[in-house]
Specification:
about 240 residues; mainly alpha; two-stranded antiparallel ribbon; globular
């Protein structure tokens, strides 16, 4: 089979052929940790305090920024993802292993940490549990692309505002209310679309709770917290809801 075929395992995931590399799961965790530390550490450095609500929002903002990059990759590599979905489906049948677990353990060369092709497998593996991510005609596919392009800027603005009082609390609250309501609505409609399409019948109950509920609930629960904070920022006119 030709080496360039994208339905084969990536040859550059072999550390003996690529040199320095890290597991994909570790790369994602490190990216989130760096972003979280920037917010919490920056606040402590400037203001000398720590607040649990701010820490939770910093974690959510950091995860959302990483996911936004993956969602941009979903758009940039949509043809590739459709082909890779078949590869992971066949591999799951052959090995009986979880595609997500295999992907998270696969080693990403340091020279390709930001390669959209490397991170396309995020969606090719998730498509084993929700096939809409291998079908560009679906709501799930397109709403995640929209999130990837639309929310990084307001997320960064709110991240800075909540950490170092970048702007008046009223302005931050208005931006936050718009962003968090959008995330709650977007995720809720995604769940509705998943069940209306009867996709739950194609996966096990365990997979439904882990991959459909578990992986998406932060965009409802954390967004509800963010919406509450945003309303308080507007009503109070200051950042007291974040402990100052």
């Amino acid at each position: 089979m030709p080496e360039h075929r994208s339905d084969r395992a990536h040859p550059d995931l072999d550390p003996q052929r690529t040199g320095a590399a890290l597991p994909a799961g570790q790369v994602a965790a490190l990216a989130v940790a760096i972003l979280v530390f920037a917010g919490i550490g920056g606040r402590y450095w400037i203001r000398g305090d720590f607040d649990i609500v701010h820490a939770l929002l910093s974690l959510f903002f950091s995860v959302n920024l990483v996911v936004c990059y993956w969602e941009i990759c979903l758009f940039l590599r949509r043809d590739h993802i459709e082909r890779r979905t078949g590869y992971w489906r066949d591999r799951r049948r052959e090995t009986g292993r979880s595609p997500v677990a295999e992907f998270l353990r696969a080693r990403v060369p340091l020279a390709k940490l930001f390669s959209p092709t490397q991170w396309a497998d995020v969606w090719a593996t998730y498509a084993q549990y929700d096939g809409s991510y291998a079908d560009r005609r679906t709501y799930g596919f397109n709403v995640d692309i929209a999130n990837g392009f639309a929310t990084p800027v307001p997320t960064l603005i709110l991240y800075a505002a909540c950490s170092v009082d970048l702007m008046p609390a009223l302005v931050a609250g208005i931006i936050g209310a718009m962003l968090f309501w959008q995330l709650i609505y977007m995720t809720s409609v995604y769940w509705v679309s998943f069940f209306v399409a009867d996709r739950q019948s194609q996966i096990s109950r365990r997979e439904k709770y882990i991959y459909i509920y578990g992986m998406n609930c932060p965009w409802v629960l954390c967004a509800l917290l963010g919406l509450y904070v945003s309303i308080r920022l507007i009503a109070d006119g200051d950042y007291s809801v974040l402990g100052r």
